Amino acid sequence: MIIENVLIVDPLDGEYVGSVEFEDVILDVKKSNKSTYDNILMPAFVDPHIHGIKGIDTMTASQEDFKKFKEFEALEGVWYFQPTTVTCPLTKLSEINLPSDLKLHIEGPFIASKRKGAHNEAYIQPPPRDVHELERYLPLSYIGMITVAPEYDTFMEFARSCEVKGIRISLGHSDATFEQVKSAFENGFKRITHFPNALSPLHHRELGVTGAGLLLDFTLEIIADGIHCSPDFVRLVYKIKGAQRIILVTDSISAAGLKDGSYMLGDLHVRVENGIAKLHDGTLAGSTLRFSQAIKNFVKFTDCSLKELAMVSSYNACKDLNLNGGRIKKGHPAKLILLDKDLNIKKVWNF
Amino acid sequence: MIIENVLIVDPLDGEYVGSVEFEDVILDVKKSNKSTYDNILMPAFVDPHIHGIKGIDTMTASQEDFKKFKEFEALEGVWYFQPTTVTCPLTKLSEINLPSDLKLHIEGPFIASKRKGAHNEAYIQPPPRDVHELERYLPLSYIGMITVAPEYDTFMEFARSCEVKGIRISLGHSDATFEQVKSAFENGFKRITHFPNALSPLHHRELGVTGAGLLLDFTLEIIADGIHCSPDFVRLVYKIKGAQRIILVTDSISAAGLKDGSYMLGDLHVRVENGIAKLHDGTLAGSTLRFSQAIKNFVKFTDCSLKELAMVSSYNACKDLNLNGGRIKKGHPAKLILLDKDLNIKKVWNF
């Protein structure tokens, strides 16, 4: 397969017009002398934090549902995603019908009650000292990432035991102080879940998780729906951190891609109005954001380059999750998306 | 007068060992081949926001007190400062015994009640449409700067009338929204008083004055006492804004340089304990910070270079106030300070 005369966007090599020859793997990339093009070729996207889409929810999806989940994500340009759990009794984790080629993002129960967001407080608990205790409920190989509040006494032991097993730790749903977060950072835990939602806010005498995320060299998940944080806030994060330290996620729930109405997120009732998902008390409860929209929003909010867009939508997440992807370069997997100049997805390959 | 073999620190030309010949004006600056030195020569400091020091208060100082005020400031390395008023009935402004070579910083009464800090709410009022209305109380030539909350309907007209008269506007004590601050910024009002104290905080769905100060190209006053904002916060501001957009101020009150005890700030009672000045309700009420300490703190908090220190302690304020100073360069005024390597002031010239 050869695609000619497209704008090739690579997160490291930049943007240039050329042609790409590929099968499963990219066989050749050639720069052309032309400067005009009709379409854009980008590395396919990765969504490390997604609860569900179009009626499917990670917690209850059948094997058949997970197949559809992948198909729906392919339409969004997403070749890899982490189906994400909500805070639940740990026994519930054993009921998840995870396909063998995906890994979970476990969001809770090891989070802070004060910053629970749309998680059921009844099931919140401190992390065990060792991740092996979770093996009672599911194989550790099913787990890609765990969101944990670093203020628990057991955090550091738990996080280190995860590291040994190749499970990423993401700090989140946390009321930690700056010093607590700094300590986690200095011990190598440098990722934060849906920044700055459900995190202790920036105060000028106690920077909290929000201030730590901005000041220290953390990588931050951002939900670029313009609802979880304002476009200006996204621009501020982009200004401070640069595209290298941002990972776009949808945090979408089963209502994504469906009409407004009533839905479940775990065992909590969610009401979606004008695409905004909330608990009855007004707490935001995940999003209805589609990845194909998230990339358009991010460009609109920040005026970033397409090279930077390739970082925040794919390359950074690939590095973070140790995935082979995110590049348009000879020898790399040909997980590719063709977009028009308005960033509408026209075609995807190899997923 | 010739000073030889010192580290010359200029905010634009940088740091180098050499000699400086000067009278009132710098006659010659020579780079030497040496790399060792005992002392540091810096442009003398400017403090655009200081209520008082050692028992002297701008609101009540006699002509004799103002002489002492200048002498005390000289010991701090400060060659120019703006004696700063507190929120008061406007008639009080006519009682200030300002010397002819200084100009006032009028802090209030045109501020927001919700962000009054240690200002007496009873006297807070919207700004008039035209600064000429203040001529009833004092000559406009007495005024260097006015801190104003931009959310007042009359803000823009007032601010423009100040601009025409060469009076600087600084946004402060404000509960404005991001959009309101952005509008002021776009109209050329790009300075913020004692950031982020007494300003609407950063929220991720409404950035407030704090978020606007960080996101837009504002110049920010910073009280680097480690109390008004934490050292980490100062480091965050330095990281985001750079030294070019920071102006150190003390915001000190008459208790500065004196023992703990009871003092007045305008007509409010202030209690100073361990050097921290507060109203009875715990609100911070100015500082007891000395400029000679502020520069040490800023270096400690941020690890900035001496070149950058020259920016935040003098050059930026000179540019901001249209003062001829802040450089060590032939032809510039010789307002100079000699410091040892621990930044203790050893000698000052020409003020």
Automatic annotation (TrEMBL), chains A, B:
Residues 40-348 form the Amidohydrolase-related domain. Keywords: Carbohydrate metabolism, Hydrolase, Metal-binding. InterPro entries: Amidohydro-rel, GlcNAc_6-P_deAcase, Metal-dep_hydrolase_composite, Metal_Hydrolase. Gene3D superfamilies: Metal-dependent hydrolases, Urease, subunit C, domain 1. The keyword Ion transport does not apply. It comes from the Bacteria. Transmembrane segments: none annotated. The keyword Coiled coil does not apply. Belongs to the metallo-dependent hydrolases superfamily. NagA family. This is N-acetylglucosamine-6-phosphate deacetylase. It comes from Fervidobacterium changbaicum. The lineage of its organism: Bacteria, Thermotogati, Thermotogota, Thermotogae, Thermotogales.
